[in-house]
Amino acid sequence: MNRELNTGVFKFILNELKPKGKLITPFNIIALITIMTAAWILFIRFTSGLGSVVDADQSRPWGLWINFNVITGVAFAGGAYVVTFMVYILGLEKYRPIVRATVLYALLAYIFYAGALLLDLGRPWKVVNPIIGNSFGISSVLFLVAWHFILYMGSLFIEFLPAIAEWATLKRQRKFFASLTLAVVIFGIALSTLHQSGLGALFLMAKPKIHPLWYSEFIPVLFFISSIPAGLSLVVVLESIGQRVFKENMSFLHTSSHRKIMFSLARICTISLFVYFTMVFLVFLHGKNLSYLNTPWGYWYLVEVIGFVLIPCTIFLYGYRRLNLQMVRIAASLTIIGIILNRLNISTIAYQWYSKSLHFPTWMEVVVTCAVIFVQLLVFRWIVRRMPVYKESPSWIKEDMENKSFKIKNESINLNTRREKWKVSAE
Amino acid sequence: MGVDRRNFLKALGVVGSTLTMGKTFGATPEKTKSDIEFDGILFDSTLCAGCQNCEVVCAEHYGFPLPEDVPEAGVVRETSEKRRVAINSFNTSGGEFFMRKACNHCNEPACASACLTKAMLKTDEGPVIWREEKCMGCRSCMIACPFDIPKFEFNSPNPKINKCRMCFELLIEGEKPVCVVNCPAEALLFGKRRELIEIAKARIYADPENYNHAIYGEHEVGGTGVIYLASVPFEELGLRNDLGTVAYPEYNKTFLYSVPAVLVLWPVFLLGLSSAAKERKLKSQIEEES
Q: How many structural domains are present in chain A?
């Protein structure tokens, strides 16, 4: 009996591991070549040191892997905490179809982008030091960010567990996992608030090195606020691509609600981008930086703030007012570029702005960065084609759901009778 | 031999008094950490002749290659993963002067507060040291240091951070840093930081014509262990005058202090919000049904 069960599980996993869909596609070939090249580059990196691969030197110690993958990439995983906030905390059911895809994207983003940190660490074999407790640098912002990454990865994984349970037909476990969701969502939002802003706080002590137009003591707040439109814009782009690529894996509910959700997200993006712009403007006034505006750095600053914050904000506004999906998608892409610019400006471009030497990432750095993104997308695709992410949940869920709605109804009746009682007693 | 009443009481008294007063009686006052004063180094640029002896002895002591270049005005020689101290030449309004570049051993070092493994450590004695067994090579000390001092071995598979450690291992044996001992011009002076500041002030008072009336490092970035004297404004000698007097870890404090508050208040607020939303949902459901 037991043996049968084991072989059953084994067969199931073996069967699921087989690729679904065409193997030889342009995407797969490009991804494979990039990943193979990256593996070779990483071999060089671990045998002869970071400097042989990365454009980083003593004055700019962090290269593309930290500044793009970790600091920028994590901002775009911010969609998960915003969407779970709307669905589980505010009870806005219309966003429910996109919850799983968003959470899955964020989970993979954290795994692979925080994983990219390991590639960049000079002494990665010491990575357990801040975790196992013999050397807690509790006054360090990075210590906080590292811990929050780990805890948040766990939270996102638990949020995604019901989907895995549905895939593997684990009825009882699914129920248990689903019961954890609210607690984990609340915990996750608190963690996200702190580590999204914490990524900005990493640069607080680099005050003399960052151009005054980008440095302010409010960097953490700006990082947090901007992670909202960043995360949601990525959801817009991801969903729009998903509608085409994963057509056959998509439930009717998901396809039919797409337009409505996109316009609602566009509305939130407009508001959050406008709030972000207002705060950037206030910080600019507060810093008395007017004199810097008429310099090349000032023009570059205006390109970022006007061109990639204010303009996408207005395009979003027009997009949802005129119900033009194309405009919403363009605005989302512009927002994404704007946030990438902002993070790279602070961490790379306007960092050591007074130094005369120009810095560009090496091709090897770029290849590894792309490979990390490719691996993330491949794993995303593998999961989406198997687990109910865009797909409808299996039919046995419905019984559960009916039970639940029955419970809710019961609860509501209870609540109603209780109210009546209070009324009576009050009178 | 039995225990009689008298002996029992005696023993009780002795035990009791040792237990309650043992620490105050007899024990010589031990030095607590707060009693130890920070060590420091005073660099008087009016005395430095640019002989590079400090560079040579430091390289010899720690096994780095000997310097092959000489200080030259207009060229900035940086410290590196193979050099812990660098002497630079500057053509100033008062003629040619030399300035020393090495770790300043800040009172409240940014590097140590940026370090998530406590690999960078401000010792009780004053030197800021790097500990190999703790470091994971994240290089946030390099991002944080306002003087750009920690240097990283980018071309090694087992990279280390290189920076001056004020010869900490010699210090705890009662010796002085090798650069100070071997400075022929006596431009370097080792001692308690407080005393060095007094000496520096005394030098300025004794020879007010010769000195710029300020001590670099007395207040900069919250005070540094290495302090500097010069006869010209410090920025002419390549020292930054825009670093402020706030200790760098202060810039993080607002953020770090808000962490526990957010972790406690946010979930409570969210929980309240979710139950409010749930109630609203129920209400609309009830209305729909009726």
A: 1
